[in-house]
Amino acid sequence: MLESVWHQGTGLHWQGAQSSLRVLPVVPSGDSADATALWMACAQLQQQGYPVVVLDGTEQESPSLPGLQDMLQPRQGYAFTTLTADISNPLSVATLPAARGMVQLQHKASITGERPLDLLFRFVQNHAVVVLWAPASLLAGMLQGCTQPPIQLVPSQSRNVVSSYRALKQLYMGCGLMPRLVALRPAGYGLDHVLKSLSQCAMRHLHTEPLCEQFDPLQARQLQRWALQCLEHSETVNAPQDGATAGVSPLSSSAVWSH
Questions:
Q1: How far apart are CA 236 and CA 21, in angstroms?
Q2: What are the tens digits of pLDDT across the range 73-107?
Q3: CA 40 from centroid of its chain's CA atoms
Q4: DSSP-assigned letters across all residues of 197-244
Q5: Contact indicator for 90, 43 with CB cutoff of 8 Å
Q6: Cβ atoms 31, 139 nearer than 8 A
């Protein structure tokens, strides 16, 4: 799980507002080691000059932990503001609670006919990469109209095969995108049996073979390659044509990924 703290600060802006950003949807496996590996990949991207913000759909916004929902609410002090980006410390990966905000974006998108990710642009346009860290039930609605598949991290325990397949099916049926299955395992582990089982289930019941990948995140080169692949295969979201922008938020976010 991600723990986040909002703090006062000007931050280092990401080259001003961008004309496009990259969005990477990720379904957590529930394994803390996998969350750590994703944090390491985000830090890798920031070291390359790409500011990352994680919208945590596993965490609900609250008065003590304001997040995406607060930025969407017109009566809130953070409403219609754009998060600043700060990569002066690449190991500090910005994150916000976003469970309620993601639901609100989907509701608004159903009314306006826009993609939820297009509605999100104005609030995170100072960043280069947005990670949507959320369960399949929440991501399926966020990915309406997208063309790039989300990443689904594969748990290490066999007892989680059924729940993982349900998440895979929910994404595939909900947004038409078959997730890319990623198993993070030690070097020399051999073909992961959970990864193999999930792939076989998708083939048998959904008649579609998912792309599968297995690597050791503790191997620096493998981690760096995966981080760049995540950037390459993420969804591109362009600035709205009407040029709508948000004001710069007086708040920046810094996060600590609990290990």
A1: 6
A2: 866 666 567 788 888 888 899 999 999 999 999 99
A3: 14
A4: HHHHHIIIIIS-PPPEEEE-TTSHHHHHHHHHHHHHTSEEEEPPTT--
A5: yes
A6: no
Give every residue of the chain whose pLDDT is below 70, as ranges: 1-18, 74-80, 242-259
Residue 74's Cβ-count burial label (10 Å; 0-12, 13-18, 19+) is exposed
Look up residue 223 and give its two tokens.
């981690």
The residue assigned the tokens 């609250």 is 62
What pTM was estimated for this model as a whole?
A: 0.87
b/e 77-100 (16+ beta carbons within 10 angstroms → b): ebebbbbbbbbeebebbbbbbbbb
Q: What is the DSSP annotation of 131-179?
A: EEE--HHHHHHHTTT--SPPEEEPPS-GGGHHHHHHHHHHHHHHHS-PP
Closest residue by Cα to residue 203 from 191, 214, 211, 193: 211
End-to-end CA distance of the chain: 8
Residue 46, amino acid: Q
Taking the C-alpha atoms of residue 85 and residue 101, their distance in angstroms, rounded to an integer, is 20
Residue range 39-51, pLDDT digits in tens: 999 999 999 999 9
Give the pairing of strands 235-238 and 20-27. Answer: antiparallel
Name 248's bridge partners: 82
Six-digit token string for 31: 């394994």
**Predicted local confidence at residue 86, as pLDDT:** 81
| Residue 113, phi then psi, degrees to nearest 5 | 80, 10
| Residue 6 to residue 95: CA distance in whole angstroms | 9
